[in-house]
Design goal:
- The protein is an alpha+beta fold.
- It contains ten helices and eleven strands.
- A four-stranded mixed beta sheet has the order 1-6-7-8, covered by helices on one side.
- α1 packs across α2.
- The chain is flat and about 65 Å long.
- The chain starts with a strand and ends with a helix.
């Protein structure tokens, strides 16, 4: 008998308050890295009505104008003067409380007399990949992000549509025998100009879903929900407070795979919350790309001050073409998993992080080699993993 199941994931737009805070945190990080690639930064931001608080720690030779950078980032997202009452690039009051990094943290992270620098904190990180989409991402989170990217492109290209920056999407996907086959329920809540009617907004959103979903996924039984509470004209931080790091499931796999708990945005790549989560995704994706499994989840764990991971765990959910213990050995032989090794192999010490803070950190196309964004999405390790299985 055919097994039918449903799975739901959500995503949020660049103008969502929490995502705005994430983008400001990563803009701060990029501002330091653009001058000093060895900067140590942990930036957290709170945004609310006409207010942004910048908090965290840094150790760097760079001295960027953070207030100017914050205003520029807010404007680039779409919160400019006269468009969004209660929060925009001109009216926002900025409180800067970025402080010096703790010397005790520095002594644990820096190599000093040791051969390699240690991890910036203890913690556990997961990476995941599966063959449900060409990007090797779970279908629900992939399409939840895709519809918001499409709507954002329309908002920027055609302001007359009346779309505003704040939005959330959600998709419930129907699976048959473990394969995604159709959209069961589609939901978007989108901020809009007061003059935009519910009917107009519904037409825009229905067309966006149809454009990004596979042929045949929207049928007569698919349920479409648009702004279920009615109008949505007051959005962004004026409508709801935003904080860095509150959308970790949106950032990763939409709940389809496990998450270690650490947020990414605002953290420099010595912090394994970020770099090891990227590495775990990179390894899982390359295992699937190499044909060694249809789905793969990898866990890495670290202790502060120690360079090597304490353990590696691999799960291929019964789809693996090789024993998981052999995959673990191949991983260790294929990539240095120290913080320095990860930063070097993935070329992470560059200002590449702002684009990650909206639209998900995974399933994105890697840019050109060298200093391009999303280097952990490359599949250039597949052949090496295959060789190291012998």
């Amino acid at each position: 008998m055919q097994k039918i199941s449903l799975f739901t994931s959500e995503a949020v737009s660049s103008g969502h308050p929490d995502k705005l805070a994430d983008q400001l945190s990563d803009a701060i990080l990029d501002a330091y890295l653009s001058v000093d690639p060895e900067s140590r930064v942990a930036s957290e931001v709170l945004v609310t009505t006409d207010f942004a608080c910048l908090a965290g720690e840094r150790r760097s030779h760079a001295t960027p104008n953070l207030e100017e950078m914050v205003r520029q980032t807010i404007a680039a997202i779409g919160y400019t003067g006269g468009i969004n009452h209660g929060f925009d690039d001109q009216s926002v009051d900025i409180l800067n409380r970025m402080n010096q990094q703790s010397a005790e943290i520095a002594q644990g992270v820096d190599a000093g007399a040791r051969e390699s620098e240690g991890a910036g904190d203890q913690g556990l990180m997961f990476g995941y990949a599966c063959n449900e989409t060409p990007e090797l991402m779970p279908a629900p989170i992939h399409y939840a992000h895709a519809v918001l990217r499409e709507l954002e492109a329309q908002r920027r290209a055609n302001p007359a549509l009346g779309l505003r920056p704040d939005a959330k999407s959600q998709i419930t996907v129907e699976y048959r025998d473990g394969k995604p086959v159709r959209a069961h329920t589609l939901l978007v809540s989108h901020q809009h100009a007061p003059e935009v009617s519910r009917e107009q907004l519904t037409a825009i959103i229905a067309a966006a879903w149809k454009k990004v979903l596979p042929e045949g996924w929207v049928d007569a039984e698919t349920r479409l929900l648009v702004n279920p509470t009615g109008s949505f004209t007051l959005g962004g931080p004026a409508g709801d407070t935003g904080l860095t790091g509150r959308k970790i499931i949106v950032d990763t796999y939409g709940g389809y795979a496990r998450h270690g708990g650490g947020a990414f945005s605002g953290k420099d790549p010595t912090k394994v919350d970020r770099s090891a989560a990227y590495a775990a995704r990179y390894l899982a994706k390359n295992i699937v790309a190499a044909g060694l499994a249809q789905k793969c989840e990898i866990q890495l764990c670290y202790a502060i001050g120690l360079p090597e991971p304490l353990a590696i765990y691999v799960d291929t959910f019964g789809t693996g073409k090789a024993p998981e213990e052999k995959l673990e050995k191949a991983i260790r032989a294929s990539l240095s998993l120290t913080p320095r090794g990860l930063r070097s192999h993935l070329n992470l010490n560059h200002p590449i992080y702002l684009p990650t803070a909206s639209g998900g950190h995974f399933g994105r196309a890697p840019n050109s080699a060298g200093r391009g964004t999303f280097p952990w999405e490359a599949t250039d390790l597949a052949d090496t993993l295959l060789k190291n299985l012998d």
